[in-house]
Amino acid sequence: EPVQLKEQLLEHLLSISSASITEEELTIMKKKYIGQLLRSMNSLELIANQYVYYRFVELDFFDLNTYIESITLADIHQFMKEWITEERLTVCTVEQK
C-alpha cells in the first residue's frame, strides 16, 4: 500500500531529527568516510569526477579530510533538527493506469 509505505517512511525520517548520536559514533563515521575517501583516490577517473563535483559546491576535493574532521557533534544535531523536517520532505506516488 503506497499510503502505508509513505506513512512509515515519514515516521522513520522524522524520528531521525530527534535521534542523538554520541561523540564515539561520530568519530567512527568520520574515520569510515575518510578511509573510503582515501581508497577512492586510487582511481584517477573518480578523482576527476569528485574534484569537479566539489568545485561546484565550492569545496576543494583535496581538503575534504580537513572539512570532515572539523564537523562537530553540535553540527550534526543542528543539521538533523533543521533539515529533516516534514516541510522539506516530498512524496511522489507513481500509480499504475
Instruction: Provide the structure class.
Output: mainly alpha
Radius of gyration: 18 Å
β-sheet strand percentage:
under 5%
Helix/strand order, N-terminal first = HHHHH
Mean pLDDT: 90
Instruction: Give unreliable regions as ranges.
Output: none
Number of DSSP strands?
0
Number of helices: 5
* Major beta sheet summary: none
Q: Give the termini separation.
A: 16 Å
Overall geometry comes to extended
Helix content: 55-70%
Description of the molecule:
This protein is mostly helical and 97 residues long. Helix content is 66%, strand content 0%. The protein contains five helices and no strands. The longest helix has 18 residues. The radius of gyration is 18 Å and the shape is extended. It starts with a helix and ends in a 14-residue tail after the last helix.
Supply database-style keywords:
5 helices; 97 residues; mainly alpha
Q: What is this entry, summarized?
A:
This protein has 97 residues and is mainly α. It contains five helices and no strands. The chain has helices at 2-16, 23-40, 44-56, 64-70, 73-83.
Question: How do the helices and strands line up, and which of them pair or pack?
Answer:
Elements (H helix, E strand, L loop, with lengths): L1 H15 L6 H18 L3 H13 L7 H7 L2 H11 L14
Helix pairs in contact: 2-4
